[in-house]
Structure formats: structure tokens, C-alpha cells
Design a protein that fits this description.
Layout lengths: L1 H15 L6 H11 L2 H17 L3 H14 L4 H13 L3 H14 L4 H13 L3 H14 L4 H13 L3 H15 L3 H13 L3 H14 L4 H13 L3 H15 L2 H13 L3 H13 L5 H13 L5 H17 L4 H12 L7 H11 L4 H13 L3 H14 L4 H13 L3 H14 L6 H15 L3 H14 L4 H14 L3 H14 L4 H13 L3 H14 L5 H13 L3 H14 L6 H7 L5
Helix pairs in contact: 3-4, 4-5, 5-6, 6-7, 7-8, 7-9, 8-9, 9-10, 10-11, 11-12, 12-13, 13-14, 13-15, 14-15, 15-16, 16-18, 17-18, 18-19, 20-21, 21-22, 22-23, 23-24, 23-25, 24-25, 25-26, 27-28, 27-29, 28-29, 29-30, 30-31, 31-32, 32-33
Length: 573
């Protein structure tokens, strides 16, 4: 591999000087090609480029070439150690980081990587010495202390870990995560008093955080001091009407075998808006899984499901649970399973098929929806809704060929002016687009817009696709502008409009809309932020652009060119 890459280097430089004809010029070219420093810089550039692109195999090859030229370069050794750690090749990672820090034990990045490699390799003494060295070099770096304590915990030196936490607490102040970690350590050490002390300190340090009081109450319940647990939960119920504390009280009464009090507190907790719906659903599912044939207790659980339905009438999980009670009172199987049992024997029951698929759709269970709709079409080949469900679920599962087939068939039998026509055309167009057939996709979008000119989702997507094609930008601009007229504070639509303006080279106008999109965006969209950086760049704000591109990396991966943009400090197409 080394020889091949070396030959490639020679070809690369030869291409730059292929016009040379004179003997003197030929001598100069050969001198350049034989210059080891030039070769080294080329290999290093390629290694860094592939490393930033996360193409670690090629990066490794080029770094090895660099190492062959400069075997005592700690940076190259550091990068190779990083690559081997990433591939879980701990032996090589440790070998190269050892050589790296032997050459340079002052660089914190080198030492930090070494500490992590040793820790993962369970070389705890070496990891300990590294993090101690880092702390000596930078005693105000909080993370180094945490890494040291983590090493002690992994090495089961729990008392040493506590000492580090105690020191951190004195130096940096109270930290809730550390207090909880100390509590966990003390419990492992069977020191309930110390664990209790840490939790009390946590509550006293953060008196407004009810969750810490609940943790303390749960701790008392865990160690069997139910009365103290009840006292804390009851106090929060009385003072703050805390829904979670009602659930905590329910757990206390359950441990005491007081079922009436248990269900009374559950009903209060289920009625509280401070407890999320998914928590309540999880509780009721757990109860159902352990429910006996006790009719009285079953009625109490049924009442819980009624409270859920009242507060969350559109929630698919809640409706599933409620259907279970309504259709099979006394049967713990969920409604869908019961309905599936029906269609096993009565394939001709259209309402049952439709009900099952509506439940699948509510649950976003695209695999089940695809399976059920495929089977239903065999028995009801003239029902457009079933073709739509099949095409829609196929689209969600990236089965685009099957999706287009079903949506085409369903669209052909759909009555004219049916409300489902817009839905058919939307997902048929999107399926075509994902298959790379832009012509058919755009035909669908055109038909849809002629039927429903204010379909905001299609207007936005269609205009954005055109901007990616860099074609028909005037129409894209017109469609996109209509979306921001309809929803002027939707960051997605503002971003699309800004990007179209960018592609039209209206950079200052584009900046106005992308700024508004960024201000309104609550999702911290990577694409939106990267667009912001691109637009800033073409408005002459290179520093601002670089700041936004780097921000993209903190949010996620970003586009394919984001690393290159950051590295070159330039916009890359």
C-alpha cells in the first residue's frame, strides 16, 4: 500500500509539471519530486482530509506514510491512536498513544486520549496517573476530576472515587450529578447513612427542585423506611399538588398492601396534568400485565383507563388500552390482537380491517400497517383506502417501488373529487422522487397544486426540490413565498425561501429570511444552521459563516461538505 501511494504522489506532482520540456526544467521537477518534505506535506494533507471526512481507512494509510517519513512526530502517533480507538483496536491504540506521550507528555489532548484508552483497556493504574497528571497541569478543569473518579469506579476503588468527588465539591461547589453518584456509591458500599446524607444535602442545596425530593422519598422506600417516604410525598402533594408524588404515594401503599389507597393515589396522579401521558400509560400497562381475575381490582384499573381517555382522547396508546377494556373486559390482550383474532376467521369483515389499520396508523406501526393492508387488498381489491394505507406505509418503510404501485392502483379507482386524492398524489410524488424519477414526481406535484393550490407541505417540498435542481427557480420562489404568506413564522418554510433566494444569488435578501428562520427555529435544525452559514459567507461574513458551520457539528453531522467548509473556511458546493 505504501508503494502504491508513493507512486500516486509522484503521478500527482508529475501532472502539475507535465508541460516541462527542457533538460534543466526536468532536473528541477525531479528535485521537487524527490523532496521528502513536499511528499510528507502532501501525505499529511490527504491524511487530515480523509480523517475529517471520517474515512478512517484511507486516513490511516496516509498517516502511516507520514509516520514512515517522520517516526517521531507525536501528532501523527496521536491521530493513529485515535483511529485505532475508534475501530476498537485497543492494542494498537495503546501502542501508538504510548509512543506519542513518550515524545510529548505536555499536550493535554494527547494525555486525555491516553487516559481514555487506558481506561477502556482496563489499564486503570496508567489511566489514573494520566488523569492525575492532567489535573496537575490544569487544576481548574472539572472534566479531568470526573474522568479520574470514573477510573476509580471502574476499578472498584469506590472510596477513592468518593474522595475525588468530595474534593470537586469543595473546589467547584455542589453538583447534583455528583451527589447522586455519591449516593449510588455509598449504597454499593452498604452505607445507607452516607447515602441518605448525600440526598439530604441534594434536597437542601436545590430546595425548588421537586425531583430531588422525590429521589429522597424513593430512597426511603427502597431501603424500607416507608413512613419517611410517605411523609415526603404527602408534603409535596399538600404544598405543590405534585402529580408525581401521588404516584409515589401509590407505590408506598402498594408496598404496604393497601390496594384501595394505592388506586386512590393512582387516580389522583392520573388526573394531574403534571404527569406526562406516556408515564401513565406505562403504569397501566404494567398493572395489566400483573392483573389477576379480581373483578373489583379490574374495575379500578378500568376507571384509570377512563381517566386517561378523558384527558387524552386522541392518544393512540390510550385508545388501544381503552379498546381492550371495552371489547374484552376481563381480557388483558390489547384491542388489535382481539381484532386480528376476528379476521383470522372472518376475512370478509371490512369494518374490522379498517379499524385495525386505523389503529396501526395511530400507533405509527408502519410494518403492521403494510402487512395488514397488503392482506386486506386481497379480499377488498376495490377499496381505495386500503391501497392508500399500503402505499403510505410502504413510503414510510422506504419501500418506494411497492408504494408507487399501490398508490397508482388506488388513484385509478378513487372517485373523482375524493378528499383522499391529495393524499394519494402527495405520497405518490414523494415516492417517485425517492426513486429518482423527478419527472413523474413533479407531474404529481403539479396535479396536486392544481387541485389544492394551498397545500403548504407540497408547495414547500416541491419548491425546495427545484432549488436543489437549480432549475425553474422563479416558480420555486413563487411557490415558496406563498408558504410564508400562509405561515410567516414557520422556520422550515422561511429556510426554503431563503435557500431559493440564495440559489438565485439574492444574498442580502436571503440573509433576511434565514435570520428570521434561525430566530424562530426551536428544533435546532442542522440543515437550517448550515444554510445560515452558507448565506453569511456570500454576504461577506466569513467569520460568522465559520461560526455557524462549526455550530452544525455540535448539533449533528451536517451536510457532506461541512467538514471541508470548516477546514477551508470557504463555501463548498
Amino acid at each position: 500500500m505504501t508503494n502504491k501511494l508513493y507512486k500516486y504522489c509522484l503521478l500527482f506532482f508529475s501532472a502539475l509539471v507535465c508541460y516541462v520540456t527542457s533538460a534543466q526544467e526536468q532536473i528541477e521537477v525531479e528535485s521537487i519530486l524527490n523532496d521528502s518534505e513536499v511528499s510528507y506535506k502532501f501525505n499529511l494533507f490527504e491524511a487530515d482530509r480523509y480523517f475529517l471526512q471520517n474515512n478512517l481507512d484511507l486516513a490511516e494509510n496516509y498517516y502511516q506514510l507520514c509516520l514512515h517519513m517522520k517516526p517521531d512526530n507525536p501528532f501523527i502517533l496521536y491521530r493513529l491512536a485515535s483511529i485505532y480507538l475508534n475501530s476498537n483496536n485497543l492494542a494498537d491504540a495503546e501502542y501508538y498513544i504510548d509512543k506519542c506521550i513518550a515524545l510529548d507528555n505536555s499536550n493535554e489532548w494527547y494525555l486525555y486520549l491516553a487516559g481514555n484508552i487506558y481506561s477502556i483497556s482496563k489499564k486503570y493504574q496508567k489511566a489514573e496517573s494520566i488523569f492525575k497528571l492532567l489535573i496537575d497541569k490544569n487544576p481548574n478543569e472539572f472534566d479531568f476530576y470526573i474522568c479520574l473518579s470514573d477510573v476509580y469506579i471502574q476499578d472498584n476503588q469506590l472510596k477513592k472515587a468518593v474522595k475525588v468527588y468530595d474534593f470537586v465539591e469543595k473546589k467547584f461547589g455542589i453538583d447534583e450529578t455528583i451527589l447522586i453518584q455519591k449516593k449510588n456509591i455509598y449504597l454499593k458500599l452498604n452505607n445507607q447513612k452516607k447515602a441518605e446524607s448525600e440526598l439530604i444535602k441534594l434536597v437542601e442545596s436545590f430546595p425548588d427542585e421537586l425531583q430531588f425530593r422525590r429521589i429522597l422519598a424513593d430512597f426511603y422506600l427502597q431501603i424500607g423506611n416507608v413512613n419517611k417516604s410517605i411523609s415526603i410525598f404527602q408534603d409535596m402533594v399538600d404544598k405543590y399538588s405534585d402529580g408525581y408524588s401521588h404516584l409515589g404515594l401509590a407505590s408506598c401503599y402498594q408496598s404496604l398492601g393497601k390496594k384501595d389507597f394505592f388506586y386512590d393515589e393512582l387516580e389522583a396522579g392520573f388526573s394531574s396534568s403534571s404527569v406526562p401521558c406516556d408515564v401513565k400509560v406505562g403504569i397501566i400497562v404494567d398493572i395489566l400485565s400483573n392483573l389477576t381475575s379480581n373483578n373489583e381490582e379490574f374495575e379500578r384499573v378500568f376507571k384509570l383507563s377512563e381517566i386517561l381517555l378523558k384527558n387524552y382522547p386522541d392518544n393512540p396508546d390510550v385508545n388501544t388500552i381503552y379498546a381492550d377494556f371495552q371489547m374484552n373486559k376481563g381480557n388483558i390482550d390489547i384491542a388489535r390482537l382481539a381484532l386480528e383474532n376476528v379476521i383470522q376467521y372472518r376475512k370478509d369483515k371490512y369494518p374490522i380491517w379498517e379499524h385495525i389499520m386505523l389503529i396501526d396508523n395511530q400507533l405509527n406501526d408502519w410494518i403492521s400497517l403494510f402487512k395488514h393492508s397488503t392482506e386486506a387488498i386481497e379480499y377488498f381489491p376495490n377499496i381505495p383506502l386500503f391501497y392508500f394505507f399500503n402505499g403510505f406505509s410502504g413510503f414510510q418503510l422506504s419501500k418506494y417501488e411497492q408504494a408507487t404501485k399501490s398508490l397508482e392502483l388506488g388513484l385509478n379507482i378513487l372517485p373523482k373529487n375524493d378528499k383522499l386524492q391529495s393524499e394519494f398524489l402527495t405520497f405518490l410524488g414523494e415516492s417517485y422522487y425517492n426513486l429518482g424519477d423527478k419527472s413523474k414526481a413533479y407531474d404529481c406535484f403539479d396535479k396536486l397544486i392544481s387541485i389544492d393550490p394551498n397545500n403548504i407541505m407540497v408547495l414547500n417540498n416541491y419548491s425546495y426540490y427545484l432549488s436543489l435542481d437549480k432549475t425553474n427557480l422563479d416558480r420555486a420562489k413563487s411557490m415558496s413565498y406563498s408558504t410564508i404568506v400562509m405561515e410567516p413564522e414557520n422556520p422550515t418554510y422561511l429556510d426554503t425561501y431563503a435557500w431559493i433566494l440564495f440559489e438565485m444569488k439574492s444574498y442580502s435578501e436571503s440573509l433576511k429570511y434565514i435570520k428570521k428562520a434561525v430566530e424562530l427555529d426551536k428544533t435546532r435544525s442542522e440543515i437550517l444552521i448550515e444554510h445560515y452559514g452558507d448565506i453569511l459567507y456570500f454576504n461577506g461574513d466569513v467569520d460568522g459563516a465559520l461560526e455557524q458551520w462549526k455550530r452544525v457539528k455540535t448539533l449533528g453531522k451536517g451536510g457532506d461538505k461541512i467538514d471541508e467548509k470548516i477546514e477551508s473556511k470557504k463555501y463548498v458546493e
